[in-house]
Each structure stands twice: as C-alpha cells, then as structure tokens.
Amino acid sequence: MAEKGEGRSVRALKEAAGLMAVLAAQKVARIGWRRVTGKEPPASPDDQQIPLIQAVAWTLLLGAAVATARMIAIRYATNLLPRRQQQALAARQAKGPDG
Q1: Does residue 26 form part of some domain?
Q2: Is residue 2 assigned to a domain?
Q3: How many domains does one find in the chain?
Q4: DSSP conformation letters of the chain
Q5: Cβ-count burial of 53 within 10 angstroms (0-12 exposed, 13-18 middle, 19+ buried)?
Q6: What's the predicted TM-score (pTM) here?
Q7: What does the buried/exposed string (b/e) look like for 67-92 if buried means 16 or more CB atoms within 10 Å of the residue's CB?
Q8: 27: in domain
Q9: pLDDT tens column, 32-79
Q10: If you ran DSSP here, which 8-state letter would residue 44 be given?
C-alpha cells in the first residue's frame, strides 16, 4: 500500500480517506439492503440462524462495496495531495523569497 519515498502526510491522507470510504460504504450497503429486502442486514453473518444464502449475499455485497469505495478514495487522495502541494509551492515561489 505505502509507496517507497511517500511522505507521512500522504500516507495519513490515504489512510484517512480509506477509513472514511469504508464507513460510508457500510452505511450505504446497510441502507441498500434494507430497501431491497425490507429487512435489517445480518448483524453476524456467521450466526447459524441466518440462512446461508442471506449470509453469503450480505458478505459479498459488503465486501465488494467496502473494497471498491476504499480503492477509489485512496486513488483520489493520492492524486489530490501532490497537486495541492504543487500549487502551494508555486504560490510560495510567486510571493518571492521573503514571503
């Protein structure tokens, strides 16, 4: 995940973006599950009282949503920070050596 030579700020931004994406994906998946099935999603898919097909469906849905959201957020964060750093550096250089 962490690239060689990557600064702490970049790693921190990527991790924060990934965490926020995971939380958002879980919320969206739960809401979507309720709308489609009319029931609450399984609290614990390994519970023997939940039908196997329901447990598998929830696990696949949640896993795909979380992995996809995290990947998109990390890619966006990776591209966003260097661009902002370059803009800040250009602004500092435009002010001159005293600014």
Answers
A1: yes
A2: no
A3: 1
A4: -PPTT--HHHHHHHHHHHHHHHHHHHHHHHHHHHHHHSSPPPS-TT-TTS-HHHHHHHHHHHHHHHHHHHHHHHHHHHHHHHHHHHHHHHHHHHH-TT-
A5: exposed
A6: 0.72
A7: eebbeebbeebeeebeeeeeeeeeee
A8: yes
A9: 999 999 999 998 888 899 999 999 999 999 999 999 999 999 988 877
A10: -
